[in-house]
């Protein structure tokens, strides 16, 4: 598998696990209630001339900092550990891939271009 595919697969896995943990801890429900409360508060502000123009983008802008603050520390730590683990694994895979490529370019891998699989050269007397 190429590096881009591995990165995409890892990213999807992280997103899936993060989403799962946020649902489990009730964060999704909290954010949903937060959105409802903001919309309710905006609808009560009759003196605000821009209330009819309140967009989804504005809601997201208002909710995002509050929603980020609601993410439990344990979920943040789990995500960070998973990301670090995946980076370490991908780094090893890249190093192994580069090593294999170098060996393929240099013949038998011992750097002497003699295709002898790294064995000793026997002297003939």
TrEMBL record:
The gene is Dwil\GK15430. It comes from Drosophila willistoni (Fruit fly). Its main location: nucleus. The keyword Cell membrane does not apply. Component of the nuclear pore complex (NPC)-associated AMEX complex (anchoring and mRNA export complex), composed of at least e(y)2 and xmas-2. Component of the SAGA transcription coactivator-HAT complexes, at least composed of Ada2b, e(y)2, Pcaf/Gcn5, Taf10 and Nipped-A/Trrap. Within the SAGA complex, e(y)2, Sgf11, and not/nonstop form an additional subcomplex of SAGA called the DUB module (deubiquitination module). Component of the THO complex, composed of at least e(y)2, HPR1, THO2, THOC5, THOC6 and THOC7. Interacts with e(y)1. Interacts with su(Hw) (via zinc fingers). It is found in: Nucleus, Nucleoplasm; Cytoplasm. Pfam families: EnY2 (PF10163). The keyword Coiled coil does not apply. InterPro entries: TF_ENY2, TF_EnY2_sf. This is Enhancer of yellow 2 transcription factor. Residues 109-119 have a biased composition (Acidic residues).
